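To fix ideas, we reproduce below one chain and its tokenised fold.
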Amino acid sequence: MDPETRKLLERTSELAEENNKILRSMRRSQRISSIIRFVYWAFIIGSAVGAYYFIQPYLTQVIDIYSSISDTQQKLNSEGSIGDLLKKFQN
């Protein structure tokens, strides 16, 4: 093998090793990014579920109050107007 071909082969080998290091670094960064993204979304979803679990009793109370107000309003509407009810009480 002549010196020029040998030098070219060594240079190609060095470039291949350098490319391999760069590609491994890029792959490692991609894995770390994927893990961080998973943890990020797990935290967001977990926080939302935890917040719902914490707030759920209060939401249930609000829904119950709304239902009772709605029922009362329907009863008033079915019995007549408020003026009619006041006349019934005056008699």
